[in-house]
Design brief:
Pfam families: Cupin_7. The protein has one helix spanning about 5-10, and strands at about 30, 35-45, 50-55, 60-65, 70-80, 85-90, 90-95, 100-105, 110-115, 120. It is mainly β. The strands form 2 sheets. Strands 1, 2, 3, 5, 6, 7 and 9 form a 7-stranded antiparallel beta sheet that branches. Strands 8-4-10 form a 3-stranded antiparallel beta sheet, with no helix packed on it.
Length: about 130
């Protein structure tokens, strides 16, 4: 059986077999934003395709960033808030290419996100970095 890292990396997929991932066995990895960790479920570095779980600590703010392509988020627990609205547990939000915002999680959250390309940070010490 393949190790977990090879199963989540889709860059060398040359066959049509399904990939089954033991999500509990995957490590939480820090993101550039303190208070937000991620588990990568599927990644294709060449294209920017990414599916990941994000765990937000209570009170965490994701600085100003741009969605380079469509981003989709389903809230598993908690909530995510920005100036356009709030996505609560069990709700889904998608953002079009070019959308810019600052996101906040007052009480923490667990979300699954689907990216076609990484977000780009636009402000402060993270300006120019991609969310990977």
């Amino acid at each position: 059986m393949q190790n977990q890292q090879n199963k989540t990396n889709a860059s060398n997929v040359s066959d049509t077999l399904s990939r089954y991932i033991d999500v509990d066995a995957l490590p939480w990895k820090p993101t550039p934003t303190k208070g937000i960790d991620m588990k990568i479920l599927l990644e294709q570095p060449e294209t920017g395709l990414l599916t990941a779980l994000f765990r937000w600590e209570p009170g965490t703010t994701l600085p100003l960033h741009e969605h380079v392509e469509i981003e989709q988020t389903y809230v598993l627990s908690g909530s995510i808030v920005d100036d356009e609205g709030e996505a609560l547990e069990g709700q889904f939000v998608w953002r079009p290419s070019g959308n810019r915002h600052i996101a906040h999680s007052p009480n923490g959250a667990l979300v699954i996100c689907f990216f076609l390309k990484p977000n780009k940070f636009l402000d402060g010490k993270l300006a120019g970095q991609e969310l990977k």
